[in-house]
Amino acid sequence: MKAGKIAFKRLKETDLPLMHRWLNTPHVSEWWEVSGKKLPSLETVREKYLPRIKGNDPVDCFLIAYDGMPIGMVQSCKMDDFPAEKANFNLDQSCAAIDIVIGEEDYVHRGLGSSIIREFLKEVIFKKYAVDCCIVDPYVENEIAIRAYNKAGFKYLKTVWYEKESRREHILSINRDEIELDKEKGGVKYKGLDT
Ligand SMILES: CC(C)(COP(=O)(O)OP(=O)(O)OC[C@H]1O[C@@H](n2cnc3c(N)ncnc32)[C@H](O)[C@@H]1OP(=O)(O)O)[C@@H](O)C(=O)NCCC(=O)NCCS
C-alpha cells in the first residue's frame, strides 16, 4: 500500500469537540488526563486547550492529519518554560518535550505512531525550537507509548517520580544530530497503515 501523507496543522477552537471525543476513548483515557481528570468534559477540554490555541500558554498544539484526515494531536513545549519540571527531570541541556495522542481507534497500534513522532521531530521540533534535544515522559506502565518512542529513535535516560501526577515516568531523549543525520540518509520512511 502507498504510504500516507502525514501533516501537522495548528489546533483550532473548532477542533476541540473532536479532541473531547478522542480524550474520552478508552485507549486514550487510560493514559491521558486533562487537569487531573480522566474522561474530561468538553468544558474542561476547552479550559485547558483554549489558552494554548490563543497563545496564552507556552504549549503548542498541532492536529495530526493522515491523508487529510484528522487522527490525533501532538503538543510540544520548551522545557525552559517549565523550570520546575526541568529541575525535577534533572535536565541540563536545552530541550523540547512532546506528547502525542492518536485518538482515532482505526489508526492506533498499526505502526503509525513512531512515523508521526519522527516526522514531528524533523518538521516541527528541530525547526521551531533552538534546542539540542527533545524528551518524552511516558508513565512507566505505558509500554505501547515507550515502544513507539523507542522505534522513533528515543533512548532511555532515567526514571523519575512526577509529584504533580503521583506517577513514575521514564524520561527518554533524542538529540538534534540524530534527526539531521536521518535527513542526510534520505528522510523518514513510512510504513503505511497496511504494511
Ligand atoms: C502512544 C501512541 C501515540 C503510539 O502510537 P501507535 O501507532 O499505537 O504506536 P505503534 O503502532 O507505532 O507502536 C506501538 C508498539 O507497541 C506494541 N504494542 C501494542 N500493544 C502492546 C501491548 N499491549 N503491550 C506492549 N506493547 C504493545 C506494538 O506491537 C508496537 O510495537 P512493534 O511495532 O514493535 O510491534 C498511541 O498508542 C496513543 O495515542 N496512545 C494513547 C495516548 C498515549 O498513551 N499517549 C502517549 C502519552 S506519553
Give structural notes.
By secondary structure, the protein is of the alpha+beta class. It has one domain (6-184): Gcn5-related N-acetyltransferase (GNAT) (Aminopeptidase). It has 7 helices and 7 strands; from the N terminus they run E-H-H-H-E-E-H-E-H-E-H-E-E-H. It has helices spanning 16-23, 26-29, 42-53, 83-88, 112-128, 143-151, 176-184, and strands at residues 6-10, 60-66, 69-78, 95-102, 133-136, 155-162, 167-175. The protein has a 7-stranded mixed sheet with strand order 1-2-3-4-5-7-6, sandwiched between helices. A hairpin with a 4-residue loop joins strand 6 (155-162) and strand 7. Helix 1 (16-23) crosses helix 3, helix 5 (112-128) crosses helix 6 (143-151) and helix 5 crosses helix 7 (176-184). The longest helix is centred in the middle third of the chain and has 17 residues, at 112-128. It is globular. It binds coenzyme A. Coenzyme A (COA) binds at residues 27-28, 31-32, 99-102, 108-114, 138, 142-145, 147-148, 151.
